[in-house]
């Protein structure tokens, strides 16, 4: 599993490496800049075509150290900049070490013969030492434009650039994007999202798009969207939490995330958030004795006309490997369900008393309930009885709404429970936490979906799986992972009616197999996305369980 870091964790790793003497900050910055250039050429090999003919010093410019004034030898109109055609880049540098990385990128591109224009936001005199060293090194052979929103906007509009590098702010973004970057942002958004515009420049973010908070993924107003984001050592949490999309759609701000090794060692970070990837051992844990050793899941169905959700959950539980699955069905819906299922068993459960009777059989070791269960008192009594049984239990949909309405019911949650809210259900269950998440952020690090899910899990005393393309799974003790359906795992067609019901079944099935709640929820969520990717667009919820054998076969044949 890959660790995702916060800015503070990344800074601590960097500081420890520098203090131990194994590397200097300047070396790390050089590797970071080189990593960005390498990633650019890997992503767009056609840009690597330039030879090093220009070389450093290829364009003679008087040196001017220490100042931020517009360099006297630089052209002062976009037309002048555009005069000559070779590979062209604009590098936007900020006042911190992110800007320092930008100066390295600018120098390395220039060494390859590129024409590079650099704009600096902020005061060079106040730059941190490594960034300043690279700024000064750049000034030895070239110049820097002082930040001017209008000039940048016009330059980008009028010139035939191949590349724009955003090195304005990285992990050090602490407050809203400044007003004087606004026009540049207005220029970025339509250009980056006009995907069909031929020959538009490639947009690359150093570490994270400026304006996106690296701990929360939230947009501190005016984020610069990009095609490619190049981060260092480990991806940051913010790369995987979905910021609200730009005005014209929900495309991700980061474009694609590439992580470059800069020679830092792994550190043991106790509370790191992880990007989930399953271990095969979880799924191969088939016993060779009998079906009961693979557990028996009980899925509660709703009344007549509302049994489809539970049937899909039951099918999911069976496909994921529960030894047996029984649907607990109200008498009035018995015929409807019997006509539709074969491998799944049925039990009549008319009320909470009947459920308690069924659960006297200790072989029912996992329960799934909520999808289309109903919201009346009888349904609430079923939830109470299920919780009192103390089994591994996944609660979804109506069960979550019932929990939100009744504090006494909520208090019955225990450490073998898994709650699977989508954003609306999360808000019903944890309105105060959701309000913090919905509040417009004004500073970094901003409150994140990870923070919210951890807080919810602690309050509920059980595992919480907060759904979405960036599903966050947190345990009460703070252990936390993200199951991403973004970037190369994007599967927006998974957002289809009933797909959450199947997820409930996957979790219940894995719980029945004796897998602990956190591992069961993480594995189920991962398999769920994998099934959607395997099937592709056109998917409906019923397809998900049927896709599982293919996914499992592929997983089990992994080297
Ligand atoms: N850590 C590592 O291992 C490595 C890190 N590396 C690189 O360093 C980057 C982190 O550098 P960083 O810490 O200097 O922060 P950075 O993002 O440049 O910004 C800080 C500056 O911005 C300013 N500022 C902030 N918000 C603002 C706003 N809204 N509006 C205006 N100003 C604002 C802030 O001002 P202040 O808050 O101090 O007043 C300060 O001047 C990281 O992303 C990576 O690229 C690599 O070299 C490899 C190794
Ligand atoms: N854009 C998306 N990309 C991938 N998966 C998504 C996306 N939006 C939602 N999902 C997933 O789809 C499922 C929807 O579940 P839910 O909202 O409970 O729907 P339903 O109640 O119809 O079953 C969840 O597993 C959620 O994580
Ligand atoms: K950046």
Automatic annotation (TrEMBL):
AMP binds at residues 467-471, 500. Pfam families: Carb_kinase, YjeF_N. It catalyses: (6S)-NADPHX + ADP = AMP + phosphate + NADPH + H(+); (6R)-NADHX = (6S)-NADHX; (6R)-NADPHX = (6S)-NADPHX; (6S)-NADHX + ADP = AMP + phosphate + NADH + H(+). Residues 10-270 form the YjeF N-terminal domain. SUPFAM superfamilies: Ribokinase-like, YjeF N-terminal domain-like. Binds 1 potassium ion per subunit. InterPro entries: Carbohydrate_kinase_pred_CS, CARKD, Nnr, Ribokinase-like, YjeF_N_dom, YjeF_N_dom_sf. (6S)-NADPHX binds at residues 97-101, 207, 309, 422, 501. Its EC number is 4.2.1.136, 5.1.99.6. One of its GO terms (biological process) is metabolite repair. Keywords: ATP-binding, Isomerase, Lyase, Metal-binding, Multifunctional enzyme, NAD, NADP, Nucleotide-binding, Potassium. Catalyzes the dehydration of the S-form of NAD(P)HX at the expense of ADP, which is converted to AMP. Together with NAD(P)HX epimerase, which catalyzes the epimerization of the S- and R-forms, the enzyme allows the repair of both epimers of NAD(P)HX, a damaged form of NAD(P)H that is a result of enzymatic or heat-dependent hydration. Homotetramer. PANTHER family: ATP-DEPENDENT (S)-NAD(P)H-HYDRATE DEHYDRATASE, ATP-DEPENDENT (S)-NAD(P)H-HYDRATE DEHYDRATASE FAMILY MEMBER. This is Bifunctional NAD(P)H-hydrate repair enzyme. The lineage of its organism: Bacteria, Pseudomonadati, Pseudomonadota, Alphaproteobacteria, Rhodobacterales.
